[in-house]
Amino acid sequence: MAKRKDGDGKGRVNPGIDKEGKNNLEYIKNNSEFFQIRENTQNFDDQDIIRIAVAVAIKHKLKLLPHPTAVGSNVGGSTWSRDGLNTDPSLTKMVEILVPQEQREEIWTYIEQAAATGLKYMKDCVAKGKTLTEIIK
Amino acid sequence: MRYKKLTLENFRTFQGKHEFVFPDNKPLVVIHAINGTGKSAMLHAMNYVLYGEAINPKSLSGDKFSIKQLLSIPAYENNNRFFSITLEFENEGKNYEINRRTQLRGDVSIPNPEEDRYYETLLYVKKDGEVLSAAMSQPEIENLINKAVSRFFLVNREEIQELDTALLDERENELIKSEIEKSLGVEVLERGKNILNNIAIEFNKEAVKDTDNSKKAEKSREDYEGEVERVEKAKISIAELKKKLNETQEKLLSLEKEQNSMKSIEEEAAKKQLLSEQLNSFEKQKIEKTNSIREYVMKNWFLPISDIAIKEYENAKRAQEDAHQIKSKLQNISLEIKKLESEIKTEKCKNCNQPINKTQVEKIKKKLEMEFKSKQELEAQYIEPTEVFPSVQVISPYIQPSIDTLEALESQLASLELDIFTIKNSISKIDKGFDDSLIAEVKNLRVKIKQQQEIETLTKQDLENKEHELKMYSNRLKSLEKDIEKYTSDTKTSTKKSQFAKGIRDLFENAFEKFRDSAREDVAKLAKAVFENLINTQGFQIDLENDYSISLKDENGRNAGTPSAGQSGVIAISLITALAKNSVTNAPIIMDSPMASLDDIHTKKVWEFIHQIADQVILFVFPGEYDEKEHRKIIQKNLSIEYTLEKVGVYNAKIIQGYKPQLLEG
Which of B56, B198, B340, B382 is 20 to 30 A from B307, alpha carbon to alpha carbon? Predict the structure, then answer.
């Protein structure tokens, strides 16, 4: 498989999740009322959940986990890149607006850390049976 | 019947009024006369008074005398142009008087009115002193002595001499036979027989109609039998249907009882059904709600930071407004500084253009200093909005979603989930009470009840139809019964009537035949007896045929050839006697010259016998028929009265009571 240039900056796809992140993502998808895949409806894809995880991390000002090393493997059949994550409205812009520069390092590093942190937080919430509002608010 | 008096006026030889009185004591009246004195005239007078006509015996064609011929010639010539005859008699205790008067009509003035049309005849009949109407008069006479039989009661000389010959003539025989039978009452009976025959024919017609009625009755009977069969079938069907209906209703009752006992189950099942439906609905709503939340979150993935973004947005906006405010103040201060600097320089008021004094200039200078100070302070506060981080334009895309909206959606979802939980809980409670097999049983029961109800409805409908059919058949049955009764009754009545009429007719016909034969036999027997009594030659006898024709037989019963004149006379007297004795008409017999053709021996025998032929016998005899010496003693004891007609002149005669032989000498 050809390596993508816009992966995690090191040529790996699926930036933002390492092995633990992958597990957290799987857990969320399998146990959450909202994120699980259903028939006859529009389903969340992995990139949506990761973006939400970034927002959740910013929202709750979570203490960021160390920068995850992208697993680089296909998770749940989907594959994304940094460009894929940075959809409209821009994820990077959001981080730039809401996270003071002094609180972050390089923006994508921050985003990937926030993603990993947010996924873990969401996984814990799902496990506790919290609602989406409770996760977000 | 007995004649009491005959009065003649201007009739034939009797010019003026002349009377014959017939006493009521003995049967025989003898009127002696020579030819031309009026013997026959009296017979004509009798015919005329009774029937209004007199037949000329000498006419071969049976012509009547004209009125002029009956009118006395001297009376006619003396312009007494009328004649009158009056007969008085008694019959069965009643007294009658018949007067027939023929006279010249009042409007006739010609000198010699000879034709009948110039005359009119008036009839006058009195019965027991009561005058009968014109319409009743002639019928009353005919009722007493029918004209058809008059020849046997008013017997002229020719009749006596030619009766046997006339009976041999086919045409004459028919007429005489008819008259004989009328005299014997056979005709009346024959008329009765014909009437009965007509009645029988009429009833037979009815009976023929009844054949149609019989056929109709038979047809009705067949229809009736068919209808009875249908009625029976309908009754059987109705009984079966009622049985089926009863069974169905019993089953239904039993099922309904069972249903009642399972009513609570049914209610629970219904409740569960309702709850399940609600559950389905809520589940569906939940999915929809979840999907809408998913879509909302998916579209607004930055939702978690939206409230932060909003705060940042508000801060940025406030900073921008503050900068604008400071900038505006700075502009105002700059303008004030410019104004103050100008006033100081020109020493004139900028507003009113009036000169200002030094004190005032000093004040302005101080104020200018303060303005500069304020300007400096504001300039220190001012930050250029474009430099504010983050800018409103940049942050605005992230403030759109609302967590409140999500919260509301989730709240609704939670409410749905609560409802679902409650329903599930209720269903669970119901499920604890019974299992699904009971519900199936209830359902099955309901199906069975519905089936039985359908059967009941159909059976009731069938029963109603059958009962309607039965009613219809029964009505037709009644109608057919009436038809049968009617046709049978009519048939019975008419057939009975017809049979009765036929029976009566046949009986009457039989009786009539017997009566006719018997009457003829009686007549024949009496005639033979009279003949045997009167005839002098032993061995001769007469035979009366069915048509009353008479033949002379010898002692061996062989035909003895044509009777002699004398034999014919005896035959006629015998037959007339027999007829008179057997006749239904009880009238006196008037005979003109009955013994004219007889020899002395036979004459004597007739004189000895003649009073017996009727209750009253009036004889016209000429001198050759009567011998005073020989016959007086024979008739004396039966003689009522005798008259002698005296010839007066050429045309007239006179009635003299008693036997006056001197007047009979020609």
Answer: B382
Whether A52 and B304 lie within 8 Å, measured CB to CB: yes
Cβ density class B261-298: b for 16+ within 10 Å, e for less: ebeebbebbeebeebeebbeebbebbeebbeebbebbb
* Cα–Cα nearest to B7, from B18, B15, B92, B214: B18
Contact A89 B398 (CB under 8 A): yes
CB contact under 8 A, B406 and A48: no
In 3D space, the residue among B337, B339, B332 whose CA is nearest the CA of residue B370 turns out to be B337
CB B595 within 8 A of CB B630: no
pLDDT at A1 over 90: no
- pLDDT tens digits for range B334-357: 999 999 998 888 888 888 888 888
Q: Taking CB atoms and an 8 Å cutoff, what residues of chain A touch B407?
A: 133, 137
More confident residue, A119 or B58: A119
Model-wide pTM > 0.90:
no
* Backbone dihedral angles phi then psi of residue B483, each to the nearest 5 degrees: -60, -45
Which of A54, A74, A41, A35 lies closest to A121, judged by CA? A54
List of residues 6+ apart from A63 with CB closer than 8 A:
A117
Neighboring chain B residues of A48 at a CB cutoff of 8 Å: 298, 301
User: Residues of B with CB below 8 A from A96's CB?
Assistant: 390
Residue recorded with tokens 């041999």: B168
Residues B647, B36: contact at Cβ < 8 Å?
yes
Alpha carbons within 13 angstroms on the beta-carbon side of residue B451 total 8
Alpha carbons within 13 A on the beta-carbon side of B614: 28
The ipTM value here is 0.86
Radius of gyration of chain A (CA): 14
**How close does chain A come to B410, measured CA to CA in Å?**
7
- Minimal-distance CA residue of chain A relative to B300: A52
Residues sharing a CB contact under 8 Å with residue B62, sequence separation 6 or more, in sequence order: B55, B56
Distance from CA of B290 to the nearest CA of A (A): 7
DSSP string, A103-118: G-SSHHHHHHHHHHHH
| Cα torsion B349, B350, B351, B354: sign | positive
Cis bond upstream, residue B113 (ω within 30):
no
Residues of chain B found within 8 Å of residue A136, distances taken between Cβ atoms = 303-304, 403, 406
pLDDT in tens, A14-44: 777 888 888 899 999 999 888 888 877 778 8
Q: Is B315 exposed, middle or buried (0-12, 13-18, 19+ CB in 10 A)?
A: middle
